[in-house]
Amino acid sequence: MVGRTANKHFAAGIDDYAERIGHYMPFTLTVIPELKNTKKLSEEQQKQAEGELILKLLQPQDTVVLLDEHGQELRSVELARWLERKQTTARRLVFVIGGPYGFSPEVYARANEQLSLSRLTFSHQMVRLVFTEQIYRACTIIKGEPYHHE
């Protein structure tokens, strides 16, 4: 994730779901610090700088999935099946939530896939909370637990 979660309520929810996910699989959140003096940078320069920081954290064998408005939309049950397949094929599955202007061309080129949470636009703070909840939901669906209702 690019930048910290400033809203304490969102941060508490994200931490809660991240802890729950940890009961099902290894899960860590990595925050790339926000860039300083961004008012002096164009949107492209900001995406480029964030992209360099993102790419430094990736390993060659990582399966990289961008959360992007142009990505594939899945229902929660479909996400669970997708995640279940990835657990058997990916050495390390890395989801990337970019900055406010999206990703640099280099990050798009490195990505293996793109997923979209919705056709609606959410704040980056909200995306983090919704996404961690959806990963938790997918874990419960995979295990056949009663959290999710059709």
Q: How many beta-strand runs? A: 3
> How many helical stretches?
5
How would a crystallographer describe the biggest sheet? Answer: 3 strands, parallel
Which percent range fits the helix content? Answer: 40-55%
Provide the spatial order of strands within the biggest beta sheet.
2-1-3
How far the N terminus sits from the C terminus, by CA atoms, comes to 30 Å
The percent range for strand residues is 5-15%
Order of helices and strands: HHEHEHEH
- Low-confidence runs: none
Shape: globular
Mean pLDDT: 94
**Protein structure class:** alpha/beta
Overview of the molecule:
This protein is an alpha/beta fold and 150 residues long. It is 45% helix and 13% strand. The chain has five helices and three strands. The chain has helices at 8-21, 43-57, 76-89, 105-110, 124-142; strands spanning 63-73, 93-96, 113-116. A three-stranded parallel sheet has the order 2-1-3, with no helix packed on it. The longest helix has 19 residues, at 124-142. It is globular, with a radius of gyration of 15 Å.
